[in-house]
DNA sequence: GTCTATATAGCGATAGAC
DNA sequence: GTCTATCGCTATATAGAC
C-alpha cells in the first residue's frame, strides 16, 4: 500500500560470490510490462471488481502466480497500473507553444489538447475508476488529481497570467479563470461520455463546441478596445 | 432486463372462485418499500458490487428470500432502486421563481439550487453509480440523463430565452449558454467530490464560487449599457 | 408469504513440481 | 522464476419447514 509494492519481500543477501553478475532477477522485464499493460487495459474498461486475476494473467499470456510474484496482490497491481497510466499521459510542451501563439489561437490549442486528453477511451476509463466508491476513502483519487488535473490547471493559470501582464486579459483570479476555462471545455459532452450515453462528437460539433468555449471566455475576460 | 422485472413469473391463474377478494398479495407493501429504500441507500454509497443481497435484506429487516420473491434478482432490484431514486429528485418550481426575479438574482438562485442538488450525498452516489463500467452499455445512463440533467438544462435555457427577449442578455445559442452556465456552476469542486478527494466547500468558498460563476456568465452575455 | 439452511460457483491467494 | 492444482472464503440463488 505504500510506495513501492513491487519490491521483493526478502532478497537472500547474496554477496555476489557464487555467481559473477546479475543473478538477482535478470529475466522478467518483458512479462512484467505485459502484465502491467494488460492490467491497465482491463481495469480501465471493466473496473476493479470487474476483472479477475485470472483474466489479467490470461491477457498477459502468463500464469496467475507470475502475476502474484511480480506484484504482491491485486490492490498493489492496481496501484501500479494507475500510476503507470498517469505518468504516460501529461502533455509535454503544449503550453509553451500556446504561450507563444496569439491569444485566441493559444486558447484554442489548449482546449483542443485538453479535450482530446480527457475523452480518449483510456482516460474515460480511468475517470470511471476514480469514481468507484471503493476508492473514495483511499488516497488514490487525491494522487490522481494532483498528478493530472491540478498540473494542467496550474499551467493554464500561468499562461493566462502572461496575457494579463501583457494587457490582453482582464482577470482578477487567474486560478479561477483557468478552472472555468477547463470546465467549459469539458462541457456536458464529457459527462455524457463518462456515463456511456451520447458517444463522441463529430468533427464539426467538436469544433463548434471548442470555439464556443473560447468565444465565451474571451467575451468575459478579454480587454475590449476602449470606446472612441 | 426489459421494462418491468418486478412482475411475478407465473401467477397460477386463480379465477377468484375459491377466495372472495384480495387473495393475490395484499400484505407486502411495507416490506417492498423497506427493501427499495435499503437498496437505494446501500447501492448509492457502496456501488453495485460493493453490496450483497444479505446486506440489503439485513438493512431492510427482512430475509434474503423475501427480497428475491419481490424482485427477481439483483440486477432487477438495482434497476428499480435507481428508477425510484430518479423519480423523487427533480426540483419543483425553482425555475419559476428565478424567472420572475431580477436577472442576477435569478441566476444566483439557479446555480445555488443546482449546486445543492448535485452535491448532496445521494446525488454524488448516483453519479458514481452511473460511471460504473457495468452500466456503460446499458440504457440506464441514458434514462438518467434524460430524466435529470437534460430537463434542468431545458428549463435554464427557457429562462435565459426570456431574458434575451427582454433585451437583458445577448446570446446566440441559449442551449449552449445554459450548458455553459451549469458546467461553470459544477466546477472542479464537483469533480473532486465525485472522486472523493477534497470534501465540501465551506459557506464562504461556495458563495465565492457561485458568485464568480454568475459574474463571468454576465460579463460574457449581459448587454452592456451603451457608452455615452 | 416468510424464514433457516444449503447448493453451486467464482474469486483471491497459496503449496508443491519443474 | 514459472506453471498446474488446490484451499478458503464469499456471494448469488434455491429447497424445504412454518
Gist of the model:
Two copies of one chain form a homodimer. Chain A is mostly helical and 228 residues long.
Question: Can you offer a commentary on this structure?
Answer:
Two copies of one chain form a homodimer. The longest helix of chain A is centred in the last third of the chain and has 22 residues, at 174-195. Chain A starts with 28 loop residues before the first helix and ends in a 7-residue tail after the last helix. With 228 residues, chain A is an all-alpha fold. Chain A has helices at 29-46, 53-60, 64-70, 74-87, 94-100, 103-119, 121-131, 140-147, 149-165, 174-195, 203-221. Chain A is elongated. Chain A contains eleven helices and no strands. Helix content of chain A is 65%, strand content 0%. The first copy, chain A, has two domains: 29-87, Arc Repressor Mutant, subunit A (Orthogonal Bundle), CATH 1.10.10.60; 94-221, Tetracycline Repressor, domain 2, CATH 1.10.357. At the A-B interface, helix 7, helix 8, helix 10 and helix 11 of A face helix 7, helix 8, helix 10 and helix 11 of B. The first copy, chain A, binds a DNA duplex (18 and 18 nucleotides) through residues 25, 27-28, 31, 52-54, 62-66, 68-69, 73-74.
Amino acid at each position: 500500500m505504500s510506495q513501492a509494492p513491487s519490491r521483493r519481500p526478502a532478497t537472500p543477501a547474496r554477496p555476489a560470490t557464487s555467481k559473477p553478475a546479475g543473478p538477482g532477477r535478470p529475466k522478467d522485464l518483458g512479462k512484467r510490462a505485459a502484465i502491467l499493460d494488460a492490467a491497465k487495459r482491463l481495469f480501465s474498461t471493466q473496473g476493479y471488481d470487474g476483472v479477475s486475476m485470472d483474466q489479467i494473467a490470461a491477457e498477459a499470456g502468463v500464469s496467475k502466480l507470475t502475476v502474484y510474484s511480480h506484484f504482491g496482490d491485486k490492490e498493489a497491481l492496481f496501484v501500479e497500473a494507475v500510476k503507470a497510466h498517469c505518468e504516460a499521459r501529461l502533455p509535454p510542451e503544449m503550453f509553451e507553444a500556446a504561450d507563444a501563439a496569439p491569444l485566441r489561437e493559444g486558447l484554442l490549442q489548449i482546449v483542443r489538447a485538453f479535450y482530446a486528453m480527457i475523452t480518449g477511451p483510456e482516460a474515460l476509463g480511468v475517470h470511471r475508476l476514480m469514481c468507484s466508491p471503493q476508492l473514495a476513502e483511499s488516497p488514490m483519487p487525491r494522487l490522481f488529481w494532483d498528478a493530472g488535473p491540478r498540473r494542467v490547471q496550474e499551467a493554464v493559470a500561468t499562461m493566462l497570467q502572461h496575457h494579463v501582464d501583457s494587457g490582453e486579459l482582464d482577470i482578477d483570479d487567474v486560478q479561477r479563470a483557468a478552472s472555468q476555462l477547463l470546465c467549459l471545455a469539458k462541457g456536458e459532452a464529457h459527462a455524457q461520455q463518462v456515463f456511456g450515453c451520447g458517444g463522441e462528437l463529430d468533427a464539426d460539433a467538436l469544433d463548434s463546441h471548442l470555439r464556443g468555449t473560447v468565444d465565451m471566455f474571451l467575451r468575459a475576460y478579454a480587454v475590449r478596445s476602449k470606446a472612441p
